[in-house]
Amino acid sequence: MMLPIIIASVIAMAIIFERLYTLRRVRIMGGDPVGTVESWQGQGGITPARLEALSQASPLGRILAAGLEGSQSAEGMRGRIEDAGRHVAHAMERYLNTLGTIALISPLLGLLGTVIGIIDVFQAITAYSGSGAVAPELLAGGIAKALITTAAGIMVAVPAFIFHRYFRGLIDELVIDMEAQAIRLVDMIHPTGPGRRQAA
Description:
By secondary structure, the protein is an all-alpha fold. The chain has a domain at 2-94 and 168-199. Helices cover 83% and strands 0% of the residues. The chain is built from 9 helices and no strands. It has helices at residues 2-22, 25-29, 33-40, 48-57, 59-68, 74-92, 96-128, 136-189, 194-199. Helix 1 (2-22) packs antiparallel against helix 7, helix 1 (2-22) runs parallel beside helix 8 (136-189) and helix 5 runs parallel beside helix 8.
């Protein structure tokens, strides 16, 4: 059972490094896109080219650009922002289910390997039983080898579980920050409209 545990560890490490890079705050938030939109109002307004640049700049920019497209009513903005936000949040959670699954099954794979190893040890005892006593060091060595898979499974599961929880918390924080920026945008475009009343 060491082979699937090793494969799980490689996948877990790849996911961890990929998410650490992808979920950087500077990459998700993209600086101050709301301030950028505010500056556009005095520099020729919001053009399709500027919206495209905003959408490509960061996930938050993609959400804000979706809110600025089409109808400019506050309710319309909020609806488009919420829809885009769901897609962005889903993308931020990419691979986390896989990481959580690895954290869950790795100890079970290790335990299964240990059980199989101990069965082999008892089969060896049965085979030796007709030819005399079994050497204690042989039994100890066989059981120790069987327990290696449990240790390996736990060593894979612990960091996978820690980073799974860390990424969940980080995504929650980023989503809250993006919601605050989206409300700020609605209030800036509609300073006395439904966006401000609902935000309150």
